[in-house]
Amino acid sequence: MFGKGIHLFKLFGFGVELDWSWLIIAALVVWSLAAGYFPAFYPDMATTTYWWMGVVGAVGLFASIVVHEFSHSLVARRYGLEMRGIRLFVFGGVAQMDEEPNTPLAEFMMAIAGPITSVLIAALAYGVYSLGVRLDWSTPPRAVLFYLAWINGLLVVFNMIPAFPLDGGRVLRSALWKIKDDLRWATRIATYAGSVFAVFLIVMGLMSLFTGNFIGGMWWVLLGLFLRAASESSYQQVLVHRVLGNVPVKRVMRTDVQTVSPSISIEELVDNHIYRHHFKMFPVTENGHLLGCITTRRIKEVPREEWSTRTVGELAQECTADNSISPDMDAMQAFKMMTSDGESRLLVVEDDQLRGVISLKDVSRLISLKLELEN
User: Which of 69, 140, 197, 340 lies at a CB distance of 3.0 to 4.6 Å from 163, suitable for a disulfide?
Assistant: First the structure.
């Protein structure tokens, strides 16, 4: 769910991506509308018409979610929070922030912007629907407009439930944060509320399945499972920010770095270094000077029969910003680079000199130790 998605467009400086999981949910939304919702409320129409209504309704829901998330992003920008874009996945979307809000007010304003926007969308859709009724439009467009008004109203009610990470849960967290001035405590309480609500949804979904309401029960169970996972993930993210915030990389890095000489053969590199230490990337140094990096991806480009005659120096490439960082960089930023780019190790470089290396395993150990010792 958090891997590379499909880039759709960019607006107001925010990129909009579509997670692959959303395609599955979009297909389920179309099916639910075409096979369940519209036939139940508007019977005796052609099957093809129901499917077209389902597609248009799903597109309208997609657009509503995008506008909802844009409102979060614009308000977050207003309060100085850096936004990486909007990601649409599973049951909705998320405005991707590089950091948590720095004040309870910023949290509240950012959270409440989404529901207010959904209220306006619902009112607009219902206003156009009412106009269509007066002008005697045909049933399909009126039905889709009424659905969009109803679903956006439902999104407002659902999102305002005080269960983190829903918007209502964020409003709750902002209030708790204001009361006790402790973001971690506020997040823990709001996350617990989110987990309890998620279990409630799962139980209600299972009951619906047993009573024959397959479509409704399926949605409740899936939504509950997703909300529970998102709630736990959000709390873990807060913990990581608290542990790694303002910790420089030089306090976490290792200085005993496994390096290789540019003169050794690729065969020696593979047998004596890669297979022994199990790293996919090695720094290439000579007399303490960093010459470049050699990766398994680069080695795979060379035919196996040439490994004994080709040297590391021939294949080494310049270490890029993707695999090297400064010792003064924040450890949280290094952690984000490793988790988002799939790089398990980053070289710590200063003035073309290799100072150390930081790995995802080392950062994970630090997080675990700090949580254990400092509660």
Answer: 197
Cα dihedral across residues 141, 143, 148, 149: positive or negative: positive
According to the CATH classification, is domain 249-374 in 3.10.20.600?
no
The amino acid occupying position 284 is V
69 in Cβ contact with 114 (< 8 Å): yes
On whether the pTM is more than 0.70, the answer is no
Separation of alpha carbons 252 and 242, rounded Å: 15
Strands (E), the chain: 6-11, 14-18, 83-89, 92-97, 281-286, 289-295, 324-325, 345-350, 353-359
Q: Compute the Cα dihedral for 178, 181, 183, 188 and give only its sign.
A: negative
Mean pLDDT of 65-81: 82
**Mutual angle of helices 214-244 and 183-210, in 10-degree steps:** 160
Helix (H, G, I), strand (E, B) or coil at 11: strand
Q: In what order do the strands lie in the sheet with 92-97?
A: 6-11, 14-18, 83-89, 92-97
- In this predicted model, what pLDDT tens digit does every residue of 7-53 receive, in sequence order? 666 666 666 776 666 777 788 889 888 988 899 899 989 999 999 99
- Domain ranges for the chain, please list them: 6-244, 249-374
What string of DSSP letters covers 248-296?
A: BGGGT-BS----B-TTSBHHHHIIIIIHHH--SEEEEEETTEEEEEEEH
Label residues 5-39 b or e (16+ Cβ within 10 Å = b).
beeeeeeeebbbbbbebbeebbeebbebbbebbbe
3-state secondary structure of 122: helix
Structure tokens given for 64: 């509503």
Model pLDDT for residues 186-211, shown as the tens digit of each residue: 888 888 888 888 888 888 888 888 88
Segment holding 98, helix H or strand E: none
Residue 92: strand pairing partners: 89
The CA-based angle 45-49-53, given to 5 degrees, is: 115
